[in-house]
Amino acid sequence: xxxxxxxxxxxxxxxxxxxxxxxxxxxxxxxxxxxxxxxxxxxxxxxxxxxxxxxxxxxxxxxxxxxxxxxxxxxxxxxxxxxxxxxxxxxxxxxxxxxxxxxxxxxxxxxxxxxxxxxxxxxxxxxxxxxxxxxxxxxxxxxxxxxxxxxxxxxxxxxxxxxxxxxxxxxxxxxxxxxxxxxxxxxxxxxxxxxxxxxxxxxxxxxxxxxxxxxxxxxxxxxxxxxxxxx
Length: 231
Known about the structure:
This protein is α+β, with helices and mostly antiparallel strands.
């Protein structure tokens, strides 16, 4: 396995692009990236693993949704710097519930983007509330600010987004002072939403926040703050 992994040209980049194709139909399902560890895990387990640039970690396809990809065949291109995998797709490949991530077609005569429909577009994929909301917020970047509140925040920029976070944090404090549990939950949801807007604006997946919180387990608040000053 080591000789196979070493055959790839990792000098160009620590991440190798991987094209994912359905084994039987040859339909292109998605494009992802792999580092050496992701490729090694894929070859060992025969289930697809990738390196998520947004989550900044290794992830197994289907780890939340259960829509795993079983490896059938693997190809290396002529320059040894990209990979093609043929897989058995369990469920769907795209977080939107579509079979393929490539469902937006550009019409060449008008350069307009048209969404292709699939028979199984109604499939529901459970990625958790936070991850699903984050992807929805990313999609809103292309929405009309006149019809989308989130898109209007993006259009106004980081100052407007930051102002809303401060405003919503103040509302949480006021609800806390009033000792109103329902209002605390409501205002905290607003704060969480606007914080996720900020993360999406900065292209930071909320999973990175989870990783940072996990890093702090067993570390006192005093020591953690001191470690920041040392950096």
